[in-house]
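[Q] Does anyone have a clean structure-token version of this?
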Amino acid sequence: MNTAEKLNIIMNITNTTNADLGQALHFDTSYVSRIRSGKRAIPKKIPFIDLAADYLADQITEDFQKTALSQLILKGEPIPSDKNGLKLLITDYLNNKADVDIAEEPVAKLLNGMSAMMGHRQGAGSKGINVMPVSIQAAAAEPDVADDSSSVEKMSIFYGNEGKRTAIRRFLQDLCGENRPFQLLLSSDEDMTWMIEDPAYAAEWLKLLSALLQNGSRIRIIHHVNRSLAEMLNAIVQWSPLYMSGAIEPYYYPFIRDGVYRRSIFIAEGHSAVFSTSVGENTANMSNFLTYDKTLVDSLSQEFSNYFSLCKPLMQIYTKSYNNDFLAGVISKQSHGKYIMASPAPTVWSLFPEVAATMLKRYGNESFIKTHNKIHEIFIETLENGGEVTELITKPKDNGSPGNAIPVPHCDLFGCPMLSYTQEEYKMQLEKMEELSRKYSNYRVLTTDMIPHDILIYAHSERDAILSGTMPPTTAFVIRQPQLSNAFYEYLSRIEAEIKV
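[A] Here you go.
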């Protein structure tokens, strides 16, 4: 859907007339009508979407409206209870639009970033990021309020964004100096200027966390959906090199907070913590506390645990060559809605049994045949029951040949460490797919160069999205958060529509 269509739906949900919106935004009624019908582009010289979202958020008052908005944007997840949260939700929904160049969409930028990172990862081979741990003793600082001397020696206070960088650097360097694994608990909804205003620091932060993961540490992080869609996708790019380790558990708090009173806590269980609070985006001169007091660290860990109990998984990350949890998610009956899949070659899901049989003569993995047959059964049942499936076969920008051996994406997650099409098998597979598209009008196969050739995406109109690289060893991100998974579906839908045109 484009912005006009989305605007029309929300105006219908809120029973907003063209005259109502025109009066609120000081627009002529006929002009609003043309925008709503798509005959007129969204004005670029004024923040039309922000102003419209602000007005429409005020109109969401009835339970049926909240339910409709929840189903429309969040796939049934609760919508924000405050006006600012509703406005942000509607703004992001309207901004994810077909009027914007596909290459400039936040999802496109995420995919390009992931592609570049995966290329670097393959070039680096198995060498990880080498970081020399540096042990730094916590410096004692006079507290604001007198306390017993043992507590004073275990607390340091730093101020403003530079102070936060210093506190977190010392926190991470000291953990690296211990040369042992830690359980890290991270949560922050504070303004991220302290990180993004200093690129050199961001690189240092990434190296320190990488070193901890190499030592066997694990990270549990709570992301916050009170950030815009672009910010959330940028956060995934920032964290994706670390996600590849499989040692990170990302969660999110499912409700949008008011964003006034904000808090950060970074904890190494049983060892140390950094914590801070701020109001709105005002972090200048705010206090950042670095503590090694075990009693206080345990208290902060309990605070994190209490908050964590209210959260949901943002995504599941799968890195093993065979993973029953990942398999169970794919082998599940799903006969309604629409799938869109983008990959450089047909996936295990649509791999025809005749083609798989010739492949397995070379690879000799009998267990994979049983798994594959079950997956393909579900694929055909989906089409038989009216579900829609579109496969976007991605190709290199230079339109070069796919090569003599074309890997089957995700094969290692289904029990076969390596599986490739020969040129003859690839041709047979494409012919079978073409036959299937003639049999089922709800099955389409298209080609595109608008998606990086080394990225695979599964998206569904009502379910989670899957994002991964295409070469073994596979790291697959199963995205649970509705706003993010819907963004991938909308992105692929736009590409499909553009190809059809």
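[Q] Thanks! Anything notable?
[A] The first helix runs from residue 3 to 13.
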